[in-house]
Structures are given as structure tokens and as C-alpha cells.
Amino acid sequence: MNWLLSGFIVLVTVVYATPSVTIDVSPPSPKQGDPLWVTVITNKPIQHVAIRFNKRAFNAFPSPIKPASVWVAPMGIDRYTAPQSLPLKTTVTFTDNSVHTDTRSLLIQDAQFLQENITLSPSKTTIHTNTKSRNTETARIGKGFRTLSPERYFWFPFIWPVTGRISSVFGTERRYNGQPGWKHAGIDIAQKTGTPLKATAGGRVILADALTVHGNTVMIDHGWGIVSIYNHMDTLAVQVNDTVNHGDIIGTVGATGVATGSHVHFGISIQGVRVDPTAWLKLSADIGL
């Protein structure tokens, strides 16, 4: 045997069997505005996972609390997406550069959004129709929602920032003083001015400012493309680049900006898609974030 080894170079090649790939989508029958959680599980080391859905590209991330062969992708269905069947394509690239592709159809259910008429006072109408301020603020907030940090800053299920009466639900088609508006991008929680507001989860503050239309506003980057927003606050207790933990006080409830009463507008965006916060809090608890 020794003479054989001395005369030849022995090559050892690791050959993987055909990979077993499981892709789970939760919820399996989503509605307009719902969040999605895609989990990719395989017996072969993964280099990268890419997902395309509804003409968008979504990122997936290696799970830090599971083996390297488990990747997850938080996603969202735009509230303006029409009820229909849409393809969800997942491309898994392994460390040996081989590729596995999975394409399946998701049937998007009708969320049956409500309608709401809002009457603004003359002073609030002046703020509401301030196109320059609205456009400037929308651009700032939109940039915040496009934040995509590969780090995960949250380690517990997301929580409500405050308890109170839900005065306006997600997706409500609004009309202001009889004029068409848009589908509500979050939920409004009515509560007394000065009531403390909590961070829905751990993260990094990416916006904390007094805005004209949206009122005093805080945005928190939770990582993995998940961003929360809190509008119409009375006071702010955080600054940009502050690190907050799950449940930390970030300010108080108010009625600043275009607000007809004391409340907080609470919103969640996932990889640039605004989703129903109620559905996201439930999903985060169901999957045990």
C-alpha cells in the first residue's frame, strides 16, 4: 500500500447527492397587504438565495439560529396588488455553484378594504394640501423604507407600540374632505396625548424629526429589510443612530401633522413593501421570531 501511495497523488472529491430542498411560504393563501415569510431548507450548503415575486426582487438571509442550509426571506404583498394568482420564483445557489429553482403560484386573496371619509379642519386642510412638504417628506420616508440591512437587530416577536382603540385599519380607502386619497399604509391607534410609545422591536433609529404633514416621526430599522414607522407623535425620545431594544420608550402619542385626534400612525414595511402591521405582529409570533 505504501508504494502505491508514494507513486500516485490521491484525490478525494466530496460529491453531494441531489439536494433535498424544502420551501415553505407562510401564510400559504395571503391577502392584499399581507406579510410573507419564505423559508428555504436544504441538506446542502447554500451560497445565495434570490426570490422574485410580483415584479420585485427580494433578498433572503441565512438564519443565525439554524444551520447554514436554512435561509429565510421576509416579504410583503403590496396593498395595491389585484387579487390574482402570481408566480413566486426561488433560486437557490449552492456553494459548489449548482442551482436549484422552484416556481410556484400564490393566490392573492381580496382583503376587502374598507372606505373612510375624513373631514379636516381649515388648518389641517392647509397642511394636507402642502404639496411641497408632502413630496419632501414622502421622499425621506420612502428612502427609509428602502433600508436593507443584512444584520438582524430583533430577537423577539414584534409588539404593539401602545394599546388603544384602532381608529383606522390598514388598507382603508380614504377620502379627505370628499376628495380621493389613498389606501391607508398603516393603522391608527387612538390614545391620549403624552402616552408613552414603545419600539415594536429592537433596531436602529434611522429617522427622528418633526415633519409638517406626517407630524413628529420616528423610523426604526430592524434589519432584514423590516422597518417600522410612528407618525403624529407629541414628543420624541430618540435620535438618529440610536440603538433601541424591544419595548424601549421612543416618545409619546400626539396629534401633530395632519391628525384629527390624538393617536399614533403605526406602520411596517418589509423590503420596501408596506404591510398590515396587525398581520405582521401575528406572523412574527406564529413563526417564533
Description of the molecule:
The protein is mostly beta strands. 13% of the residues lie in helices and 42% in strands. It has two domains: 87 residues, Macroglobulin (MG2) domain (Immunoglobulin-like), CATH 2.60.40.1930; 172 residues, Glucose Permease (Domain IIA) (Distorted Sandwich), CATH 2.70.70.10. The protein is built from four helices and 21 strands. Strands 10, 13, 14, 15, 16, 17, 18, 19, 20 and 21 form a ten-stranded antiparallel β-sheet that branches. Strands 1-2-6-5 form a four-stranded antiparallel β-sheet, covered by helices on one side. Strands 4-3-7-8 form a four-stranded antiparallel β-sheet, with no helix packed on it. A hairpin with a 4-residue loop joins β16 and β17. The chain starts with a helix and ends with a helix.
Please provide a brief summary of the model:
With 289 residues, this protein is mainly beta. Helix content is 13%, strand content 42%.
Jot down its keywords.
13% helix; 4 helices; Glucose Permease (Domain IIA); 10-stranded antiparallel beta sheet; mainly beta; Immunoglobulin-like; 289 residues; disordered N terminus; 4-stranded antiparallel beta sheet
